[in-house]
Structure formats: structure tokens, C-alpha cells
Amino acid sequence: MRGMSLIVQTVARLVAGMLFLFGCYIVLHGHLTPGGGFAGGVLIAAAYILVSLAFGSVENVEQHRYTFSSVFESMGGLGFVLLGLMGYVAGLDFLNNLWADYGTPLRLVSGGIIPLANVAISMKVGAGLFGIFLALGASRFVMKD
Amino acid sequence: MLESSFVPLLVAIPLLGAFVIPLLSKLWEGFADLVGNLVSVFLLGLAVYGLVHLSTGATGIVYKMGGWLPPIGITLVYDSLTALVVLITNLVVFPALLFSTRYLDQYTGRWKYYTLFMLLLAGLNGVAISGDLFNMFVFIEISAVASYALVAFGTRAEELEAGFKYMVMGEVGGLAILLSVALLYAKTSTLNLADMSQSLAAGGHTTFFWFALGTILVGFAIKMAMVPFHSWLPDAYLSAPAPVTAVLAGVFSKVVGVYAMSRVVFNLFGLSRTTAPAFFDMLVAFGLVSIVAGGLLAINQRNYKRLLAYSSVSQMGYILVGFGIGNYWGVVGALFLVVAHAATKGLLFLSARSIERSTGTRDIDSIGGLEKSMPVTAWSYILGSMSLAGIPPFAGFFAKLLIVLGAVASRMYWLAILAALFSTVTLGYLMKVIGKVFVGRKSTEPTPAQESPPMILLALVILVVVVVLFGIGFQPVLDWVVQPAAEALFGGLAYARLVFGG
After folding, report:
1. Is the pLDDT of residue A141 over 70?
2. Do B402 and B332 contact (CB within 8 A), yes or no?
3. How far apart, in whole angstroms, are the C-alpha atoms of residue B473 and residue B480?
4. Do A93 and B16 touch (CB under 8 A)?
5. At what angle do helices A37-54 and A6-28 cross, to 10 degrees?
6. In chain A, where the domains are located
7. pLDDT tens-digit readout, A85-112
8. How many CA atoms lie within 13 A of B486 on its CB side?
9. Mean pLDDT confidence for B70-80
10. Touching check for A112 and chain B: CB below 8 Å?
11. Which of A140, B153, B313, B327 has the greatest CB tally within 10 Å of its CB?
């Protein structure tokens, strides 16, 4: 059997979903509460890493997982740069907050481009961390041979 | 749209390239080449535009990211020193990327190389335009981390070893810089260079001041491989892919080492020869150690790439001596040598790779007479060597002449004599390579070799033209690029006035 013991698998099955949701919450409320794209992205990556560790798909990672993390990471970075460039489209400075809105407490849809930037950062950080994890797992696999 | 809007593009465009390349190259491998080269051409255009924009009279552009005012917001500063650094960066990166299109034929994972190269480029441009000490550190680390990965790109055992060694040394340097940034932040409660410089000027030359300066300079010295910290350099330069070596030797050491160091010493700590003579004498001493050690280590090398690597150590010593002399002509000479050496070393490392590509060896004793079989490569190497050694019509000569003049003007005659003397050592070891590899003796048969493909020759010819133009046209280069940059340095705290618009 690949992966860890039944106890770990059961706990992971319970926790992973909540971890993922909590990560999403931290990302989406980044402009209102402590946290943001980076912290939330790390939590989302942690959910994926937990599942991978518990169910033991570290040592036989398929190519499509690398592609998945690489595509998401690139899209996150791309999104952030494009958000920055949108300042030019509006005739303002680079990375200008387009609607001059600095966030209203308890209102999710506020803060101009800050929530969007948080989502982009969380994609970059989350997919990047997961990619690092996959790379480390792969190198262990190679060295064992 | 504002006229100054091009400043953040210097970082945003290569970042955009870095993120687009992995996505698009899943569709077609050639996108990596296409996007990489388009980005470098565009950035070269921006660098030239920036230079022209500054020459129309403005002393510098201060760009406020997102419209936030300094010292709260992040500022980007584009003054004449930045313009010089951005120009040489993109001038060397452009032919290096042209060279890469054929160089990468021997590797898989073309898009990984271009992605890392774009990140390296974004980091280098970012260091130059950053008006904030912590952002400068972050950009230094972006370019450094990209370069660690690029040094180990070949993934053979010795390349991984060189990459690891470089990474350990580089990170020690990075941590020294970070420590100093943290100390300065604790003392001045600001990270904006301009704000910090005013706060430091008010504080006086305390022990803390010298400790923070010393720590950050150790970090820069490791990044630019000054002599006590040079051990990573030859292995890293030999193991990296040739275009990366050209960028590391030609630009990386200048931007992350020389530019950051001079910005910190002159504009942040506000030092000058008159206020801190002992400090500048120390710079001269360290520079001299690098000149002598680098030159002596280069003489006995039989590997022409290792020889060039040690020669870089020696030439960086000249730049440091120029700054250490600290009078106007010394600093102008040092900055001119930055410009000249960037193009020259880029050219030499690329043509060295072109030789290695055809002959398959790096040993100067086992090849000869290449002038006949590879005329373009041979002549680009010879012209580059002449510029590096300081033979009159070339840029290297004028740079060293200015440094020697600066030494004489400060009545440091012994320094002028030593600098001139070690210039002949440079000539000596370069002539050894030319004599053995290209001209060859009558008794030995010329090595059979084939000229490199046109794309590689195009890259070489572009750099030859640049080197020759910098030499013949040294007066315009001096007037438009180097002297304004030197004035930006000598302005000292005028940098702060520029940022705060006073």
C-alpha cells in the first residue's frame, strides 16, 4: 500500500477540505482581515501537499501534476503583472488601485484591485510551493534508485 | 499617459515574458526563443529611450508606484547612473539571447532557460531602477537566484557543484546585505533610499554607521567576487551556459556589485573622498589586491575560459580602484570601465564559446591557427582582447587612461604606475591566447574547425560593433552617458532632493 497509515489517511481526508476552504477564505478576505495572497496560497498548497503525502502519490507523480502546478504558477504571475499594467490602460500609474477604493470593513467586494491581486498572488505562491514539493519528492525518488 | 511611464516596464516586461514563456511553449517550443528575443529588443529600445529622455535636461525621473508618495510608497528612480546601468544591461543581454537561440540546441527544456533568463533580466533592471533599499535587496536576490539555477543548467556533476558553491557564497553575501538593511531600518525607521540618506546624514559618522556600511559592502564584494571572496567565480563562469556567463561577467557583477555599491556609498551614506579619506584608501587597497591577484592567477591558466574569469576579477579591481581614487576623473574612469568591460567581457565569453563549440576543447595548447578557419570568431576575440588590454583606439584604453589620470591628479603616483604596470600583465595573458589559439606557429598544423552558424556570428558582430563604437566614439559616450552618471554620484545627497522634488 502506498501512503501512510489508515489514521493519517482518515484525518487527512477530514482536514484537507477544511484547510483548502480556510486558505480560500484567507485569500478572499485579504484586504479586510489579516492574511492575504501569500498566507492563503501557502494554506491551499498545504492542503494539496497533505493529500499527496497521506495517499502516497509522491513517488510516482505523473507529468500532468507538474504541468498543473507550472501552468497555475505562470497564470498567477501573469495575472499580477497584467493587473499592474491595467493602471496604464486607465491612464494612471503602474499598479494604481483603479477605483481608488482602499477597502470597507465587512464588505467583500471592495478595495479595488487588491482582492484580485491577492488571488493572483495566491495562485503563484500556492502552485509554486506545490511545485517545489513535487520537485523535492521527485529528487528523493531519483536518489533512491 | 505620463512620459515617465516606461520605468516600471523595465521590470514588468521581462516578468511578463517569464510567465508567458512556460504557458505558450507548451503549444510550440519556438515561442521561448521568439518571446525572449522580442523582450530583449524591446528593453534595449526602452533603455535608449530613457537615455535620450534624460539627455533633454531632466536630472532624473522619480516614479511613484501606484501613485503613493515617498517615503510611504515605493519609488522607482531613473537618474543618469541608472540610465547607464540599464543601457549596458540590455546592450549585453540582447546579443546574449541571440546567441542562446543556437546555443540551446544541445539542451532540452528551452523554455526553462528563457524563463530563468527573463527573471535574471527583471532582477538586474529592478536593482537599477529601485529607489528603496529593501526592494533593491529583493531584486538582487531575484537575479541571484535565477543565476544560481542558470549556472547549474547543464546538470552535469561539475555544473551542479559549481552552482551549489556559487549559491552558498552568494547567499552568504545576500544575508550580509539583508543584515545591513535590517540594521539601517532599525536605526532610521525607513527603507526609502532618499529618506534614509537624509536620516543617516543627520546621525553623523558613528560606529554604527561604519558597521552597517561594512556589512553591506561585504555582501556586494561577495556578489562581485572581489579577491577574498572570489573563489566561486571561475567555476561558476566555466559551468554556466556561455550566454549566461557573458551576462554574469559582463553585467551581473556590474549591476549587483558596482552599481549597488556606488549607489550606497555615494548616495545613501553620502561619503566622498574629502569626508572619509580612510574609507576610500581602503577601497583602493582592496581594488589593488584584486588587480594583482586576478592578474597573477590569470597568467598561468591554460584554459582560455578560466583565464577570462580571473581577468574579470582583475578588471573589477580596476573599477574599485577608480572609485577609491574618488576624484572626478577616477570615478568617470571607473564608470567608463564599467561600460567598456561589460561589452568587452560579454564579447570575449561569447567568442570563447564559439571556439569551444567548433574545437571541443578549452585548452589553449591543443588548438592553433584558428584565424584561417574561423575568421569572424577569431577577429571578435582579438578585438575584444585588445579592448580589454587597453590598446589605444578601444574603449578599455580610455577607461584605464582616465583612472590613471585620476590617480595622478590626486598625487597618487605609485598607484598610477601600478595600474599601468598591471595593464601590461593583462596584455601579456591575452596575447598568449591570441598567439597560441589564433595565429599559431608555422611548425604546427592549424586545428580543423568550422565557423559557427550565422546567428552566433550575428551576436558576436553586434558586440564587436558596440566595443569599437565605444572606443572610437568615446567622447560622445563620455558626454552623454558616463559624465552625467558620475555627476549623479557626486551629487551625493542631491539624490534625496531629486526624490522629494525639493
Report:
1. no
2. yes
3. 11
4. no
5. 160
6. 6-144
7. 888 887 778 877 777 677 788 888 888 8
8. 24
9. 88
10. no
11. B313
